[in-house]
Amino acid sequence: MKGSVPRCWSLLRFSSSPETKHMTLRKTLAPKSRSLLSFFSSSSSSPPPTIRTIEVGDVLRRWRVFTPADVDAYSKVSHDTNPVHFDADLARLFGFRDRVVHGMLVASLFPNVIASHF
């Protein structure tokens, strides 16, 4: 593990000051057996990690086709029985092309989409 940086290093970008960064790292990321200075030392042989962030305008893509069975299963666990999720004719009446996939079912993919790009 020497010279490597934990994947969760990117959490540091949310901190606003060097003092806060050190505190955040100490509390959440630094193993007890390693010195905090090993993460910030300027004499380290490896360069500091590049911290990738999502910027306005960035596009992250992941394709997933939700089946009627996916929508039905999600409806059962979420108790969302809105007819636009089950009745294609009603969904078309409201301007959709077909049944509507639950927004939170689609949103459940976000962590995977983000993780696959970082």
TrEMBL record:
One of its GO terms (biological process) is fatty acid biosynthetic process. It holds the Pfam family MaoC_dehydratas. GO terms for molecular function: (3R)-hydroxyacyl-[acyl-carrier-protein] dehydratase activity. GO terms for cellular component: mitochondrion. Residues 61-117 form the MaoC-like domain. InterPro entries: HotDog_dom_sf (IPR029069), MaoC-like_dom (IPR002539), UPF0336/Enoyl-CoA_hydratase (IPR050965). PANTHER family: HYDROXYACYL-THIOESTER DEHYDRATASE TYPE 2, MITOCHONDRIAL (PTHR43437:SF3), HYDROXYACYL-THIOESTER DEHYDRATASE TYPE 2, MITOCHONDRIAL-RELATED (PTHR43437). This is MaoC-like domain-containing protein. It comes from Nymphaea colorata (pocket water lily).
